[in-house]
Amino acid sequence: MDGLVNSCPLLDYIAxxxxxxxxxLVDIGCSGGxxxxxxxxxxxxxxxxIDPDVAExxxxxxxxxxxxxxxxxxxxxxxxxxxxxxxxxGKPDFARNPNxxxxxxxxxxxxxxxxRAVTEKEKRASNLWQSAQLADPASPLVVPxxxxxxxxxxxxxxxxxxxxxxxxxxxxxxxxxxxxxVLGVGIEVRMWGSEExxxxxxxxxxxxxxxxxxxxxxxxxxxxxxSALPSRFVGRAPGATELGRVHHGDAMYARDLGSGLYxxxxxxxGPDKLLNLAAIFAIFDLPDCAAELLLKFRREITAxxxxxxxxxxxxxxxxxxxxxxxxxxxxxxxxxREPQSLRGTKNPLVRAARGLKAGFVKWxxxxxxLRMEREG
Length: 376
Description:
By secondary structure, the protein is an alpha/beta fold. Helices cover 40% and strands 12% of the residues.
């Protein structure tokens, strides 16, 4: 999932709270494991990962040291008599599919023809997980029902990345988004497809999420070139390319409780959920949205922790502080006194210095996360 940050001082603060509370993550399409950046929440984190790859789930179960993180081997989906499944019946899974014309697919075909073994990382990058041993697709797991049977009555963040039927899986949460008080959803979206209302295109996902009271807060885009004129891959593994048409990306939706438009929903959840929403904004590098939420619900969240310390942590993230510390009051005060300081710059030296600073914070955060993952 694109958009998450390695260094997040607010999550570090939350992890140290004497009464940790609970943050429930559901990761559908968890190949590679639960994103380690969520582990900054420490004891607060509870996670359920679901994936059809038999060997990958076995590997994750064997490696996982945190008993609050569990993995299930299954295809997520819906029953054949679900109204959405009935409406989709007889329609192609991928309308106007450009994939056969892409240079990435051509590259993988050439590698196969030369009898070169494709690594697991390359399979994930090129969406070749279908070549692995998979769970039975005829017995899909309806995730909301699984959550209910497991006694999970509240979900904070739902991530969906199943390389195909993402919209179908999202529709299986049609009623559950409200029943489970889901705060945020991250989902892979396609930029190609048809005008059909059941097609898993970005515009249909966006309409669905807006209809359930969510707003779009982050959207990444990945490009793929055609085989007529291949472009260089963005990474080492075959996948997205530097040039090409916009193909797909990751969208992050959340409840915009700072807006005043959803005060009824805000009143229905406790301070723990409000703090969890601030954490979602922070981990997706939206410290401003997190700060707005903390200020609006200061009285409620004060029952859990020091809001001023949390605001300082968000300021440190916003400023890419090397020390991990900053003062919210000083930051806001400086902006009020010197609004010109908000202007950007074209000075290459200043931009290089800021880039180095941000790069160091990112590198240090990644090292911390690797340590947390090893220690469980």
